[in-house]
């Protein structure tokens, strides 16, 4: 077996299947890897409390890369290892721009989701599917005016998330927002969203920082992903594994393509690793 000491795993579309469940095969493979002394690190666009309980409750998970890398969280010690946030003033400027578009948006601050109530009430019109709607409803607190709320709190924002119903507009903004806001990272994790983080808040940077904190060479890390927000992590890891259902750019960044999230592709690759076949 390659001397892999840390495996970072995206959740939605990667470790979890289309129904947001952890398959028995994936669960068994993770446990085998943990027993072999490998750190199992969920790496997600969600904040920690927004992760499914079935992942948060895994006894061998010691660290989480959350909010696309805006936070690396030490689960056992309940503390942040490192963080990178958008200045609140910059976040308000971005939201001023979004107010001119046919979108709804929210932000993550203090590891929770916040959203203007008027936009929150329109979530059903913009959610890509029932799972997206459930996450918006359950993991965002509506406030009268999000921008005013940020001005009152006057501290950093971990992520801004935008939902579209016009996919042409989404494609235009995926190309245009990085030009308008070159100091920020613009990516995506589901079919109709855009996610905006600080320049240092990527899964790849977070993986590097966590590996350094644990004294693990990057060559001894493995990462799984399926979408644009996983590309930096797939590129940084010693072994980058993309799912069969992954975006084409994610596949091109990977060293290996495994089965889809609905066919327990994570288990397939981990088992190959443990059997010295990868």
Describe this structure in words.
- With 278 residues, the protein is α/β, with parallel strands linked by helices.
- It is 36% helix and 23% strand.
- The chain has helices at residues 24-35, 53-56, 88-98, 117-120, 123-126, 130-139, 146-153, 167-180, 203-213, 231-236, 248-253, 265-274; strands spanning 6-9, 39-42, 63-66, 71-74, 79-83, 103-109, 112-116, 140-143, 159-164, 184-187, 193-198, 221-225, 239-242, 256-257.
- Strands 8-7-6-9-11-10 form a six-stranded mixed β-sheet. It has a five-stranded parallel β-sheet with strand order 2-1-12-13-14. Strands 3-4-5 form a three-stranded antiparallel β-sheet, covered by helices on one side.
- Helix 1 (24-35) runs parallel beside helix 12 (265-274).
- The longest helix has 14 residues, at 167-180.
- The N and C termini lie close together (8 Å).
- The model has no long low-confidence stretch (mean pLDDT 96).
């Amino acid at each position: 077996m390659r001397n892999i000491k840390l495996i970072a795993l995206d959740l939605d579309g990667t470790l979890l299947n289309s129904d947001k469940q952890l398959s028995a095969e994936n669960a068994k493979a993770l446990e085998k890897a943990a027993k072999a002394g490998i750190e199992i690190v969920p790496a997600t666009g969600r904040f920690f409390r927004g992760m499914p309980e079935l992942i948060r409750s895994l006894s061998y998970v010691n660290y989480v890369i959350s909010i696309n890398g805006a936070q690396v969280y030490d689960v056992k010690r309940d503390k942040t290892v490192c963080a990178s946030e958008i200045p609140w003033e910059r976040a308000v400027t971005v939201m001023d721009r979004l107010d001119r578009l046919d979108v709804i948006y929210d932000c993550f601050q203090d590891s929770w989701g916040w959203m203007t109530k008027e936009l929150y009430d329109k979530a059903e019109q913009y959610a890509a599917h029932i799972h997206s709607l459930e996450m918006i409803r359950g993991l965002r607190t509506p406030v009268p005016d999000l921008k005013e709320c940020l001005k009152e709190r006057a501290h950093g924002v971990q992520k801004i998330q935008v939902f579209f119903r016009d996919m042409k507009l989404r494609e235009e903004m995926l190309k245009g927002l990085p030009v308008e806001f070159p100091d920020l990272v613009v990516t995506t994790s589901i079919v109709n969203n855009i996610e905006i983080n600080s320049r240092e808040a990527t899964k790849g940077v977070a993986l590097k920082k966590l590996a350094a904190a644990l004294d693990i060479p990057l060559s001894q890390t493995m990462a799984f992903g399926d979408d644009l927000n996983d590309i930096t992590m797939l590129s940084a890891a010693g072994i980058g594994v993309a799912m069969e259902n992954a975006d084409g750019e994610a596949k091109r960044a990977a060293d290996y393509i495994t089965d889809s999230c609905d066919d327990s592709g994570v288990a397939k690759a981990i088992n190959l690793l443990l059997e010295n076949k990868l």
